[in-house]
Amino acid sequence: MQQDSDEFVSALFSTLGRQLKAPTTTIKSLESTDNMVDALFGLEMEERLECGETDAEPVMMKKEKALKLVCNITKDTNHISEGITIGLEGTIEKNSDILGRNATWKKTMKINRLPKYICVQFMRFYWKLTPESRDHTGVKCKMLRPISFPQVLDMFRFARTNLRPSSRNADLILNEFKDKKPEATTAGDAEEKPDVDMEGLSAEEKEALEVAKTMSMANGRASAGIGLPLDFQGNYELFAVVTHKGRSADSGHYIGWARVKDDDWLCFDDDNVSPCKTEDIQKLKGGGDWHMAYLTFYRAKN
């Protein structure tokens, strides 16, 4: 039986997570995690549930962890960002204590903490029911629709709102404030002038300025996630792809593609390794019998 590459990655993460535990001495880079897999690939998600049939039902919030994002594929999906969004938004049927019955709830998920590396799985394989067949068990199918993916992926679009400005705009606001701040002519004048002149700044700018000041005084502590710099802009660079070739979900061939540097890549077809370029990677979006992306790996871009 052919091993699905996503199943293999999940098993690999699980095994490494059990083996690569934090030693007795504290490693700052691991922060609140207890193993290297969670520290490098772990996403913290914030889930929000709102009842769509009554405002009397309180909003439910919870946090959960994940080691990958999923790109859902529908007849209208064309880009990896659209597929990820589908998985983060939707509706579910859930009991409402206020209504005393099942009701429709709106589910929204946002990223609460970003890792240094992000794995995105394309939902290429699905189960199709076959009610007219003899055994009625259904059949496993493959979605061939082309889904484009960029060389640089902006992850802040999927993050909670107050995570984005703290990292993206702090330096910008701080620099703008420095331009507005009047220069002192003498040492005495410098002592008399206040450090911060809030006049002329909007409430949003004032809040961003306070964040910028806090970040400027921080000592190596990442705001967006473990190991990420304070001025992280939320951009991730594509550095590896796992593709599947073939129309059948139960057969075909998996190949690995890894970036060496800039536009130079290597294609790993079993024991045959050959060079390729970024333009070759762009052709892996699917839509036919050629290799199509099944797993993509991104790394934080400084």
TrEMBL record:
<dbReference type="GO" id="GO:0043161">
    <property type="term" value="P:proteasome-mediated ubiquitin-dependent protein catabolic process"/>
</dbReference>
<dbReference type="GO" id="GO:0016579">
    <property type="term" value="P:protein deubiquitination"/>
</dbReference>
<keyword id="KW-0645">Protease</keyword>
<protein>
    <recommendedName>
        <fullName>ubiquitinyl hydrolase 1</fullName>
        <ecNumber>3.4.19.12</ecNumber>
    </recommendedName>
</protein>
<dbReference type="InterPro" id="IPR001394">
    <property type="entry name" value="Peptidase_C19_UCH"/>
</dbReference>
<dbReference type="GO" id="GO:0070628">
    <property type="term" value="F:proteasome binding"/>
</dbReference>
<dbReference type="Pfam" id="PF00443">
    <property type="entry name" value="UCH"/>
</dbReference>
<feature type="domain" description="USP">
    <location>
        <begin position="1"/>
        <end position="301"/>
    </location>
</feature>
<dbReference type="InterPro" id="IPR038765">
    <property type="entry name" value="Papain-like_cys_pep_sf"/>
</dbReference>
<dbReference type="InterPro" id="IPR028889">
    <property type="entry name" value="USP"/>
</dbReference>
<dbReference type="GO" id="GO:0061136">
    <property type="term" value="P:regulation of proteasomal protein catabolic process"/>
</dbReference>
<keyword id="KW-0833">Ubl conjugation pathway</keyword>
<keyword id="KW-0788">Thiol protease</keyword>
<dbReference type="InterPro" id="IPR018200">
    <property type="entry name" value="USP_CS"/>
</dbReference>
<dbReference type="InterPro" id="IPR044635">
    <property type="entry name" value="UBP14-like"/>
</dbReference>
<dbReference type="GO" id="GO:0004843">
    <property type="term" value="F:cysteine-type deubiquitinase activity"/>
</dbReference>
<keyword id="KW-0378">Hydrolase</keyword>
